[in-house]
Amino acid sequence: MRVVVPFAAAAPKTRLGPALSAAERVEFSRVLLADVLGAIDDTDRQPPVTVLSTEPVDVDASVSVDDRPLSDAVNAVFEDRVAGGDEAVAVVMSDLALATPAALDRLFGADGDVVLAPGRGGGTNAVVSRHPGFRVDYHGASIRDHRRAAGAVGADLTEVDSYRLGIDVDEPEDLAEVLLHGRGAAPTWLRERGFELDVSGGRVSVARE
Amino acid sequence: MRVVVPFAAAAPKTRLGPALSAAERVEFSRVLLADVLGAIDDTDRQPPVTVLSTEPVDVDASVSVDDRPLSDAVNAVFEDRVAGGDEAVAVVMSDLALATPAALDRLFGADGDVVLAPGRGGGTNAVVSRHPGFRVDYHGASIRDHRRAAGAVGADLTEVDSYRLGIDVDEPEDLAEVLLHGRGAAPTWLRERGFELDVSGGRVSVARE
């Protein structure tokens, strides 16, 4: 198995605009990426990882630059896999701030031609494909579309039931999840910039000093 | 092990007000409860279940009425447990529309004096306690407080990493999760009332005909 971590290097995390400046969002997205890479590296399998980035980026992993839209870039990896052999390919999003080695080991160890980890709001936060015909389309309710796509090519489908893989960091309220559950550098980064939990409302959110 | 499912019978699910009328919220909350009871009944363990309700309610399970606030009512159950023996007690929220028997089996089968299943926004969606001193406080960022409470009484703590136990149904956007991942009567109930996925925005939501 090998792992691909897609990364949008330019103008990342725009929906965090109400909470972080543009420069902070660039820095935070790299902290999140490094946390995900660290968690993958701490799994039992320690699979080789490639960051699939829209532009060159300085990280502690090999980088493959592909500036096409996300789905096209990932599908090109799947097509290379078919041409190069039958090795399983995992695709893990770079903003899974809650991901732990244990959660990733469950993903990497799950049986199935196609393994999906659903993300909040209909997303697909991680995929493992061992099937030559499976392709991704991250637009819209991708988890629903990926279930259908797996069925359409006759692939056995497994879903990994993981909160830690299900929460990605897109919006300010997600920063509360990072503070509550994150174990990498991201929660420390947020606290150093004045973020703390705000429990005054209904659902817990964050406040900044 | 026995299971307690707290249920707020009067004026439930007020935060679903933008999506459902008051009468619909009452009906939907009972559909959610029945789904959770059905999932518990389909686990391997099939533990006995009591609905801990704020007022009498007609459901397919034994009902214990306690109109105190949630934390007080649950802690009274824990205290009864201590008086009555050392049986493990699980507390499972009634609005876990994504809960499956497999997810609940992971909860019920997890080792630890205290087992917690985190919920979105700092909540605690399910607890198993085998420790005589552990008490709950569902106010605020309860998952953080429950970690501390377990530590304060010297209880071994385990967290169950489950998306299906992590998503409760509080707000209109949560209805999309029910449509995408629910396996009980709740997604059918919503579809029959005109709800469908809306993929036109950033994160998937619901629209009603």
Largest sheet of chain A, described in full? 7 strands, mixed
Contiguous low-pLDDT stretches of chain A (5 residues minimum) are: none
**Helix-strand string of chain A:** EHEEHEHEEHEHHHEE
Strand content of chain A: 15-25%
Strand order of the largest sheet of chain A: 3-2-1-4-6-5-7
What value does the average pLDDT of chain A take?
A: 95
Task: Give a topology summary.
2 copies of one chain form a homodimer.
Chain A (H helix, E strand, L loop, with lengths): L1 E6 L14 H20 L7 E5 L8 E4 L4 H15 L4 E4 L8 H9 L4 E6 L3 E7 L12 H11 L4 E3 L3 H4 L5 H10 L3 H8 L2 E4 L6 E4 L1
Parallel strand pairs in A: 1-2, 1-4, 2-3, 5-7
Antiparallel strand pairs in A: 4-6, 5-6, 8-9
Question: What descriptors fit this protein?
Answer:
homodimer; 209 residues; alpha/beta; seven-stranded mixed beta sheet; two-stranded antiparallel sheet; 7 helices; globular
Task: Give your account of this protein's structure.
The structure is a homodimer of 209-residue chains. By secondary structure, chain A is α/β, with parallel strands linked by helices. Chain A contains seven helices and nine strands. The first copy, chain A, has helices spanning 22-41, 70-84, 101-109, 142-152, 163-166, 172-181, 185-192, and strands spanning 2-7, 49-53, 62-65, 89-92, 114-119, 123-129, 157-159, 195-198, 205-208. In chain A, the strands form two sheets. A seven-stranded mixed beta sheet of chain A has the order 3-2-1-4-6-5-7, with helices on both faces. In chain A, strand 8 and strand 9 form a beta hairpin. In chain A, helix 6 (172-181) packs across helix 7. The longest helix of chain A is centred in the first third of the chain and has 20 residues, at 22-41. The relative contact order of chain A is 0.16. The mean pLDDT of chain A is 95.
